[in-house]
Write a structure and sequence with these properties.
14 helices, mainly alpha, 249 residues
Length: 249
């Protein structure tokens, strides 16, 4: 099955080694993706099939380090591999996996964010988006500067995603039961900001609430001095609020 998948992906009658078979099988098993899919996605992105195992291990480790589903992150990376040819991700698959992991934590489809990223990819789009954000009272400087918006879109989509999520989090509130919701007075503004960013309103609202929840956890948890940003995110993602307290089972 793996050999047939390789031939189909490469279009040549290549014969893989036993080690390559083992790595590809392990990658497909861990990510719950078909051998054909995982092979074709990596090969089409320009990766040597002998490196699929190592690259998949990076994806899984990135997801694990941030406390999100490795299966969800892997599926998101494979679905958006073509973005490696159109945007600069730090470390290639590493950077794409980091953005996919952040998207999973924010409960938003990464392709949705990439569509917003593309909207600011050229000067005209970046100027239009920055002007809309300024008109709607956004305070984050990086979202009001067309040049920075365009640079993030082209060279740091992960930073773009984080900035948009932070903007959305400011529209939320915590009710008496500990649930995060869009503040009643911010619903209209939320819709306008979603339109300006090029993100469907339902997805923008979902991402905003997830970002606010993460911010709340970060502010309430007491981290040791030696904890890295990754470790803080990991702890926050696996922590749940119950009866007014943060708990990890």
């Amino acid at each position: 099955s793996i050999q047939k998948g390789l031939v189909g992906a490469l279009g040549t009658n290549v014969l893989a080694s036993k080690e390559a078979f083992k790595d590809i099988y392990a990658a497909a098993s861990v990510t719950n993706q078909s051998v054909d899919t995982i092979t074709k996605k990596f090969v089409d992105a320009g990766y040597n099939f002998n490196n699929i195992g190592k690259e998949t291990e990076k994806i899984v480790n990135t997801a694990r380090s941030l406390g999100v589903s490795a299966e969800a992150v892997s599926a998101s990376v494979l679905s958006n591999m073509e973005a490696l040819d159109t945007h600069n991700f730090s470390g290639g698959v590493d950077g794409l996996a980091k953005m996919a992991a952040t998207s999973a934590g924010l409960r938003v489809n990464m392709s949705t964010i990439l569509s917003a990223v593309d909207k600011a990819f050229n000067p005209e789009g970046a100027i239009e988006m920055a002007a809309a954000f300024q008109r709607l009272g956004v305070s984050q400087s990086e979202l009001l500067d067309p040049m920075r918006l365009m640079n993030m879109s082209q060279n740091d989509p992960e930073a773009f995603q984080q900035s948009i999520a932070k903007m959305g989090a400011s529209l939320t509130e915590l009710d008496e039961k500990g649930n995060v919701k869009i503040a009643p007075g911010s619903i209209r503004r939320m819709k306008e900001l979603a339109d300006a960013a090029g993100i469907p309103q339902a997805e923008f609202a979902k991402m905003s609430k997830a970002a606010a929840e993460l911010d709340m956890k970060m502010s309430k948890l007491e981290f040791p001095d030696f904890a890295t940003d990754e470790q803080k995110t990991l702890l926050a993602n696996i922590t749940q609020m119950k009866d007014g307290q943060m708990q990890i089972k």
